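Task: sequence design from structure.
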């Protein structure tokens, strides 16, 4: 039966084996460094909020804000975030922008305008469109959430710098892809672009000893 989701380490290995049959660069790197452990995050509001809070922050900074937020509100729900004062959330480390984005997501989920529970039944394009309609959620945030929380197998995070840097190394290109080339760079990996992204994050960490995905599920 063909893979439609990445639900386990075995699924990721199967996808990478299939990619190795169609891409000699993947085959060479996969033979050298093996497969990563599949990273899966819980689905729902708290995880998506974590992704938003982690945008453009170090692992340590993002963890500190999350820990302070959880100490403040307890269970992280839309109602809990809406009930917390702006001053209290700023005290946790929320910037003005992150505060607006967190409240926009909380309001959308609380009102029913944002239906995170319905994402599983949506195709990739529809799921991304549903998420990016929320203020503060761009394509990268939507794609990373769908990759790690929903195991999307053919979703390509073209705006991820680490993925693009690993792709540059994989292809022995002199420069990292930019513009439309970032999206085009994933096309040879279809229908396993999500699996390729997992592997490229693994390759990036293998080369730099740095974890490029800052959120912890």
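Answer:
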């Amino acid at each position: 039966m063909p893979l439609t989701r990445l639900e386990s380490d075995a699924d990721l290995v199967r996808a990478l084996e299939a990619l190795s049959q169609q891409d000699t660069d993947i085959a060479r790197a996969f033979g050298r460094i093996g497969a990563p452990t599949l990273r899966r995050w819980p689905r729902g509001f708290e995880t998506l909020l974590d992704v938003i809070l982690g945008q453009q922050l170090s692992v340590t900074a993002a963890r500190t804000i999350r820990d302070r937020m959880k100490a403040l509100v307890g269970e992280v729900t839309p109602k809990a975030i809406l009930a917390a004062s702006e001053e209290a959330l700023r005290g946790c480390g929320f910037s003005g922008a992150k505060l607006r984005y967190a409240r926009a997501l909380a309001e959308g989920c609380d009102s029913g305008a944002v239906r995170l529970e319905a994402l599983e039944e949506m195709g990739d394009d529809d799921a991304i469109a549903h998420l990016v309609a929320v203020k503060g959620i761009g394509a990268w945030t939507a794609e990373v959430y769908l990759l790690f929380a929903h195991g999307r197998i053919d979703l390509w995070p073209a705006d991820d710098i680490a993925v693009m840097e690993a792709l540059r190394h994989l292809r022995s290109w002199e420069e990292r892809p930019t513009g439309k080339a970032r999206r085009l760079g994933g096309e040879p990996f279809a229908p396993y672009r999500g699996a390729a992204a997992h592997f490229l994050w693994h390759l990036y960490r293998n080369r730099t000893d740095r974890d490029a995905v800052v959120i912890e599920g």
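The mean pLDDT is 93.
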